[in-house]
Amino acid sequence: MSLLAITGATGFVGSAVLDAALGAGHQVRALTRRAQPERAGVEWVPGDLSNAAALAALIAGADAVIHIAGLTSTPDPGEFEPANVTGTANIIAAMKHAGAARLVFVSSLAARMPRLSAYGASKARAETLVEASALDWTIIRPPAVYGPRDRDMLDLFRAAKWGVVPLPSGGATSIIHVDDLAGLLVTLAGNAAPTRKKIHEPDDGREGGWSHKELAQAIGHAVGKRSVFAPHLPRAVMHAAAAADRLLRGDRAKLTPDRVSYMCHPNWVARFDRAVPAAVWQPAIAGEDGLRATAQWYRREGWL
What we know:
The chain is of the alpha/beta class. It has a domain at about 5-145 and about 175-205 and about 270-285: NAD(P)-binding Rossmann-like Domain (Rossmann fold), CATH 3.40.50.720.
């Protein structure tokens, strides 16, 4: 049993990591900006990534840190730097002060192409800080993450229910179920040797990823449609959709101009030479099964 310090434990990925860590028998100390209900095996630390005292309390005596917290979408691209770059720098400084060594950092495939988006650029800068830190680090670049409690892909499932899944321009992407990603991150917290000071790009095990059309059809099947209409939307149309989303949902808009920039890139497939060694971890949830189970969860919770 180890003590794991987790940032972002109240978010979509982080909550799955919290469950996986407890399921594996670890004790957890987790950072939170809001009061949380008591939970066996979890010590909640009030604060955020800008609070040095909170980070010191979070990391003191921890065997490993899993740094998930960060900003993925915002109408103001200037917010990525303090959230993703400065926040990571603060984690590194707190770990060094506490004498903690093992860091598992959750980045993004968007960091591969930092010129495409402010989000990807911020994750790339954060990776550079981690690589230069002299800590015992592993960087994970997840592809599109889906599963129960995910709101980012929810709109695609809702659209598929009506037989239409709008897509960016032609291309391919990898996906990973949140439970597979969570299991990987917890495994890496204690299994450093084969992944030490490496960047890995995990996925669902589907070689070559999913073409956008294939993924649209799979989501359609998950909601019970034999087929769906999946038009490719030109960049200009997607930017117009982003503007409309901002008008409708304000700061809660999921489609932002920054997201459009990297969504229109044709290749977000995890690279085989960046795969996690099979002896360390392998995905357990195939895409078709995971998408179907996710649709069932959405229905059960009244989201779909």
